Amino acid sequence: MIIVMKKNCTREHVENIIQLLKEYGLGANLSTGSQTTIIGVLGDKTKLSDANLELMDGVEKCVPIMHSYKLASRDMVPEGRTVRVGNVTFGAKKVVMIAGPCAVENQEQILKAAEGVKAVGAALLRGGAYKPRTSPYSFQGTEEEGLKMLRRAGDETGLPVVSEVTDHEQLAFAEQYCDMFQIGARNMQNFRLLREVGRTGVPVLLKRGIASTVEEWLDAAEYIMSEGNCGVVLCERGIRTFETATRNTLDVSAVPVVRERSSLPIIVDPSHAAGKAAYVEPLALAGVAAGADGLIVEVHPNPKQALSDAAQQLTVDAYASLFHKAAEVARAVGREI
Ligand code: PEP
Ligand code: MN
């Protein structure tokens, strides 16, 4: 449930309500927008049956939240949330451009990739160190060493870095090297991992599971937020459908759906949706046109030699083309890059 406050309510009115909720054993999430102040009730609202909240000073109305996710819902923060990673803000006017290789392979490769995408204009560097591979015989990632190499490349180019964590036991180490954790599609419902990243203060890029509904995805975000970490950015990366011409089917409609239902920023990953370099640019442009707050694109200094996802990684030149077109589309929809 949310408590919508009157326009002329005072600080004291707000504090009285938060105090009352505390007495009932409930938490509060305060959202002070330019138009309205909203207090989100956290916990079992049936405890409030005799509280007569609507009669309290400063209260306009009480509205139940119909979804299982609360902190992630749009009702709780109607203006939308922003998430900061280093000097970058997700959910503001700028479309955040993340780029880098699928995997960190060696120091030279990740540094070259970082320099290339930085020169094009990317704001964040990606690179997987713990790789969740479908086959146990595929390259599994450079793990701890990879994270150190990624950090060095980020520091040398001045780019914050995002990397995937696949197990809660990696967090203490990864936290020292990552500005943002990525939770991959295969782990979207790894509830232990969600809860544990929720206990860190590190912003999280939460990918959509390959067969997950928007509702399940937002419930996954809620797991992270309910532990105190509201720095969650959602990432649509394609879902599994009957179509086999692409690796996955980019669900562009998830962008407006999420923007309507959730306060969280949402970005698009055209690389894992496409599975093929030639399709990446048009899908990226579709994502920006649909209102995405950012793009995460796989870029490799030499895609043909990539140890993972070779077919879908872009050269730096191809990324530059995507980047400039995306900037034009962003302008057309009232955003910028
Ligand atoms: C990745 O980003 O390299 C990755 C493995 O993505 P996903 O979890 O979306 O498959
Ligand atoms: Mn990949």
UniProtKB/TrEMBL annotation:
Entry's transmembrane regions: none
Coiled coil stretches, renumbered: none
Domain of life: Bacteria
Key words, A-Z: Transferase
UniProt-listed Enzyme Commission number(s): 2.5.1.54
Boundaries of every DAHP synthase ferredoxin-like domain copy: 1-66
Record Pfam families: DAHP_snth_FXD, DAHP_synth_1
Family matches, as InterPro entries: Aldolase_TIM (IPR013785), Class-I_DAHP_synthase (IPR052899), DAHP1/KDSA (IPR006218), DAHP_snth_FXD (IPR041071), DAHP_syn_2 (IPR006268)
Residues covered by the DAHP synthetase I/KDSA domain: 91-328
GO molecular function: 3-deoxy-7-phosphoheptulonate synthase activity; aldehyde-lyase activity
A Gene Ontology biological process term: aromatic amino acid family biosynthetic process
Name recorded for this polypeptide: 3-deoxy-7-phosphoheptulonate synthase
